[in-house]
Each structure stands twice: as C-alpha cells, then as structure tokens.
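Hi all, long-time lurker, first post. I run a small reading group and we've been trying to get comfortable going from sequence to structure in the token notation. Rather than ask abstract questions, I figured I'd post a concrete chain and ask someone more experienced to write out its structure so we can walk through it together at our next meeting. Sequence below, copied exactly:
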Amino acid sequence: MGAVGGAPRPGAGENLQGVLASPSRPAALLAVALAVLMLAAAAIADPAGALLLVPGALLLLVLAMRDLALRPVLTADGSGLTVVDGWHRVSAPWQEVEGLRVVVDRRAALLEVDLGEVVVVLTRRRLGRAPYAVLDELAALRGRPS
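-- Answer (accepted) --
Happy to help. Here is the structure in token form:
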C-alpha cells in the first residue's frame, strides 16, 4: 500500500484500460432486497414505525438503484478520467485533474478527485476496493505520482 502522495507501487498501472472502480453488484442487489423488505415491514408497522421505515427504505432504494445504474463509478485511461458525481458523469483530461489523494478521517479512507470546479469524494464501498489501490493505479495511468 503506497502512502498518500507517494509513488505508485511497481506494476500498479500495468494492463489497465477502462474500469478502475465500481461498487459491488451483489451488495447493491442486497440493498434493493432490504429496501423492499423494509417497505413491507412498514405496511404492517404502527404509524410511528412506518414513519421511520419508509424514508429509510426509500433512501436505501434510491442509492442502490444509483449504484446499479451508474456503473462504473470511476474509469480512466492514458488520456483522462471519468467519475460519477451524484447522478451524472464528469469527464476530464489529465491536464484538468488538479489532484488525486486519499483522505483519512476517523473511520475510513476516502479517494478525493479534484477536477477544479468539482471535487468528488468516493468511499471504499462506492469504489468496490481500497482507495489506496485505486490511487496507485490512477497515478500510474496519469504517468506521475499524485
């Protein structure tokens, strides 16, 4: 695992064309099933329980549908990258990418992609793997350490 801002591991970017990161499809399908189960439970719950279950289920359903519909979350090649920001894709050549780094908060490492006007922060769940591994591969594709 490379350090933040460090050089990529040898071979980190070999044979990389296209998809770098995508959320787990089984996890997204499981979230859809859980949301449906929560909505069914809300139908038989008391009004207070339904008031809690319905918004949670709808939010879970929307996020799971986004993960299924907007895959992959991050793609890159020698000319630039494309990343999903909310509900749309943002593409930029490497010259417009101002920074790539892993930000570590109290609980998790997050990949931050700075495109100037837009900063996209991606979690391990959204990437489908460790942010440090994705950063190493992006740095190798970009042709210089981030």
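A couple of things your group might point at:
DSSP finds four helices and seven strands in the chain.
The first strand starts at residue 18 and ends at 21.
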